[in-house]
Amino acid sequence: MFYTTELIADIFKFAGDSVTLINRDANYAAYITRTDSGETEATWKATIKRNVDHLETIKGYKHEDESTIWGSEDFTAIDAAIVKGKTFYGG
């Protein structure tokens, strides 16, 4: 698949949704809120892990010719969210 500039921008934007979720939910207060409302610890951790996996996957996206789709995008927030998420689910 060849990724257009517009598609790459959308993918990067949607990655921000995962960053937001991880930053919002990968903390003890969110854990208490979620488990107090009936969500299990396993479900909470699975949600965080799914979003970390999503971020790691998109970082590896390549064009058909195996070149990276990424150019000058700043992955600082994404990398920090991956580390934070893995810390909380034990990855």
Give the helix/strand layout.
Layout: H1 5-25, H2 28-36, H3 41-59, H4 76-89
Helix pairs in contact: 1-3, 1-4, 3-4
Q: Which stretches of 5+ consecutive residues score pLDDT under 50?
A: none
SSE arrangement, N to C: HHHH
**Largest β sheet strand count, sense and barrel closure:** none
Give the overall pLDDT as a whole number: 91
What is the count of β-strands? 0
Query: Helical residue percent?
Result: 55-70%
Q: What's the total helix number?
A: 4
Class per helix and strand makeup: mainly alpha
**Radius of gyration from the alpha-carbon trace, in angstroms:** 15 Å
Q: Indicate the proportion of strand residues.
A: under 5%
Distance between the termini: 30 Å
Global geometry: elongated
Structural key phrases:
91 residues, mainly alpha, elongated
Short description:
The protein is an all-alpha fold. 69% of the residues lie in helices and 0% in strands.
Task: Describe this entry's structure for a reader.
By secondary structure, the protein is mainly α. The chain is 69% helix and 0% strand. The chain contains 4 helices and no strands. The chain has helices at 5-25, 28-36, 41-59, 76-89. The longest helix has 21 residues, at 5-25. It is elongated and about 45 Å long. The model has no long low-confidence stretch (mean pLDDT 91).
